[in-house]
Specification:
By secondary structure, the chain is α/β, with parallel strands linked by helices. The protein contains 13 helices and 9 strands. The chain has 2 domains: 230 residues, Spore Coat Polysaccharide Biosynthesis Protein SpsA, Chain A; 103 residues.
C-alpha cells in the first residue's frame, strides 16, 4: 500500500520545520508520498519548503508553489490532482493535530481494507487536548449536528482536518469548494455516495489568532451556505424534482392547520418535513405520502384532522419506503428508478 499525504501550507514559518520533522519521523517506515502545497505564503514558508525539498534525497517529495493565497480547499485540490497513492491523508501543518494520531488511523486502514474513509475527531477522544476557545468548539459541534441531520450521519467532528480517504472514494466524488468549506464538501460528497465513514479520536492543541489561527467567523457563516447548497441544490434531477414536489405538497398540507401566525408556523414546519421526504423518496414514492395525507384529512374535521393526517403521513411514509426499496432492488430500468 502507498499513502499520499497532502499538506497545505500558508504562513507557517514558525511551525513548518518542527511539523515536517514530526511527519517524516512518524511515517519513516511507510511507503509514503509527501505533497507539500505552498498556498501563497508571504512569511517565507514557501522558500523554506522549496529549500527543504531540494535537500531531501528521497524521490517521494512533491512540491506545488501557488504564488497567490487561494484557500485551503484549492491547495488540497492541487494535491489531489497529482497524488499516486492508494490512500490520501489530509494533514494540516499547524501542529494543532498530532501526526502520530494520523499514523494510528493509517494502521487501522492497513489492517482492514474494507474501511474506505476514516476521520479524526477532536471530540471523540481520551487523548490530550488543549482548547481555550469554547465558542469555536461549540460551533463545531453544532455544525456537526446539523450535518448529521441533513446527511443522515452520526459524526462528532465534521471539521477535523485529519482525514484518510481511499483512491476509490476520491475518484467517485465530485469536490468543488476551494476554501475552508472543503471539509464540509468532502464529508457531504462521501455521505451522498453512500460510503461508510469511520471516526478515530485524536489529540488537539488549539492555536489562537495571535499564534496563527486563520479560520474566522466568515468561514463559519459560509458553512451553513455550503450545507444548504450541497444538500438541497447539488443533487441529481430525480432528487431535485422530488424535493420541490414534496416541499410544495407538504406546505399545502400545513396550510390547513392553525390560525393567524400558527398557519405560517405549520407551513414552515411541513415544508421542512417535505424537504426531508424529498431527500428520502423519489417522485412516485413521495406522491404516495401525499395521497395518504389527503385520505387522512377526509376522516375528521376541525382540530382532530391533524391526527388523521399525521397518521396518514406515517402510513404513507412507511409504505413508500417498502415500495421504493423493492423497486430499487428488483429493477434496473432507469425510467422506473427515476420516479420510484
Amino acid at each position: 500500500m502507498k499513502l499520499s499525504i497532502i499538506i497545505p501550507v500558508f504562513n507557517e514559518i514558525n511551525y513548518i520545520e518542527e511539523f515536517t520533522n514530526n511527519l517524516k519521523n512518524t511515517f519513516v517506515n511507510e511507503n509514503v508520498e509527501y505533497i507539500f502545497i505552498n498556498d501563497g505564503s508571504n512569511d517565507g514558508s514557501g522558500s523554506w519548503l522549496e529549500n527543504y525539498i531540494k535537500k531531501q534525497p528521497e524521490k517521494n517529495n512533491k512540491f506545488v508553489n501557488l504564488t497567490e493565497n487561494t484557500g485551503k480547499g484549492n491547495a488540497l485540490h492541487e494535491g489531489i490532482k497529482i497524488f499516486t497513492g492508494d490512500y490520501i491523508l489530509f494533514q494540516d501543518s499547524d501542529l494543532e493535530l498530532d501526526t502520530k494520531d494520523s499514523y494510528e488511523m493509517y494502521q487501522i486502514l492497513k489492517n482492514d481494507k474494507t474501511i474506505k474513509c476514516i476521520f479524526g475527531s477532536r471530540y471523540l477522544t481520551g487523548k490530550l487536548k488543549s482548547n481555550k476557545n469554547y465558542f469555536n468548539e461549540f460551533v463545531g459541534k453544532i455544525n456537526s449536528f446539523i450535518f448529521n441531520i441533513l446527511f443522515f450521519q452520526s459524526l462528532s467532528d465534521v471539521h477535523c482536518g485529519a482525514k484518510i480517504i481511499s483512491r476509490e472514494v476520491i475518484k467517485k466524488i465530485n469536490l468543488s469548494i476551494k476554501d475552508f468549506g472543503f471539509e464540509i464538501d468532502l464529508s457531504s460528497q462521501i455521505a451522498k455516495n453512500n460510503f461508510d465513514i469511520f471516526e478515530y479520536g485524536i489529540s488537539y492543541f488549539a492555536r489562537s489568532p495571535e499564534e496563527g489561527k486563520k479560520i474566522t467567523w466568515i468561514d463559519g457563516i459560509k458553512t451553513y451556505y455550503y450545507l444548504f447548497k450541497i444538500r438541497f441544490v447539488d443533487n441529481d434531477l430525480s432528487t431535485q424534482v422530488s424535493i420541490l414536489f414534496s416541499s410544495a405538497y407538504m406546505m399545502y398540507v400545513g396550510s390547513h392547520f392553525g390560525m393567524g401566525i400558527g398557519i405560517l408556523f405549520m407551513i414552515l414546519t411541513t415544508c421542512i418535513i417535505g424537504l426531508y421526504v424529498g431527500l428520502r423518496r423519489k417522485i412516485a414514492s413521495s406522491f404516495l405520502v401525499y395521497l395518504f395525507c389527503f385520505i387522512g384529512s377526509l376522516f375528521s374535521k376541525g382540530n382532530g384532522k391533524i391526527y388523521t393526517v399525521v397518521l396518514g403521513f406515517i402510513l404513507g411514509f412507511y409504505l413508500s419506503k417498502k415500495i421504493s426499496a423493492l423497486t430499487q432492488k428488483t429493477t434496473t430500468n432507469r425510467f422506473i428508478r427515476f420516479f420510484v
